[in-house]
Amino acid sequence: MFSLFARAAPHVPRSTVLTRNVQFSVRFQSTVTTKPKRAPRVLPSFSMEGKVCLVTGAARGLGNEFCRAFVQSGCTDLAILDLKEDEAKDAATELVASACVNSDMTPEDFNVIGVGCDVSSELSVQRAFEQVMDNFGRLDSVVASAGIVENYSAFDYPFDRIKRLYDINVHGAFFTAREAARNMIPQGGGSIVLVASISGTIINIPQPQTPYNASKAAVRHMAASLAVEWAKKGVRVNALSPGYMLTKLTKTILAHDQDLKKTWESLTPVGKMGEPEDLAGAIVFLSSDASKYMTGSEIRIDGGYCLI
Ligand SMILES: NC(=O)c1ccc[n+]([C@@H]2O[C@H](COP(=O)([O-])OP(=O)(O)OC[C@H]3O[C@@H](n4cnc5c(N)ncnc54)[C@H](O)[C@@H]3O)[C@@H](O)[C@H]2O)c1
Known about the structure:
Blueprint: H1 2-8, H2 14-19, H3 21-34, E1 52-56, H4 61-72, E2 77-82, H5 85-99, E3 111-116, H6 122-136, E4 141-144, H7 159-187, E5 190-195, H8 210-230, E6 235-242, H9 248-256, H10 259-266, H11 280-287, E7 298-301
Parallel strand pairs: 1-2, 1-4, 2-3, 4-5, 5-6, 6-7
Helix pairs in contact: 4-11, 6-7, 7-8
Bound molecules: nicotinamide-adenine-dinucleotide.
């Protein structure tokens, strides 16, 4: 107690402190008024400072939002992977510019790169990771967010499209996780998050999307399986399962059916679709040291959709 006081108002004699409490509190408060104490902003283990992050499917949508959440949490070294290289590079430039608005950071403080990568091709994923390792020398947090959805009834779904969906959603997540772990294990570990979906647990209605639902069930179980395989090597693997979020993916579906949004919202206890930033806290938690004892788990963020 005394040492705290002595720092706040060193000019007050010690005897005054011990015998005259009233004077103590008055003088102490006036010191606080002129120089407020700064409370800690967040639990330090949530910080992404010093971590090298990589997100697939990050030129837009949820992947892009995950990148923003990392930068807002202190990450300055980041790789944005997406199908088209120019879109990935544009997203990198835009992210750095927006991070410097109302901030004392300048573009030189960031190393954010855009890399073209088709996650459905193992070779493309390997080349992208090579580029990232050449650039940063290490990799701490990887998010596999690239994914597609299509709505066909089972009888109408063309097989080549079903294969394409599994190649991106399932094999793409696997190639991403495997390349991440290959690079993380020699450096002592890291965190991998596979973006699954509530569709891996429940069946969405009324739109038919059986292959998508099955692909996301595979991703959830893939996260748990890889978590066990790599647990002793320091690599954690968790799944993040969003409900209905407003991104290009869902807007494309809603463009063909305006009533669908009302149906989805009526089936969601909170009564509305989620915004991409509603996932920011969860992605930082899973990717940071705040979740260091957590692996093979799933976080579901769906406004309560799965409860009813
Ligand atoms: N939006 C939702 O409501 C919702 C809900 C649950 C789960 N998800 C999942 O979240 C993830 C992201 O969805 P979103 O809503 O941001 O979609 P989105 O369509 O807005 O963005 C997806 C991104 O992935 C990229 N991509 C597509 N194919 C790729 C490939 N082969 N290689 C690399 N990148 C590729 C696209 O170019 C795009 O930038 C997906 O896995 C999706 O299944 C979304």
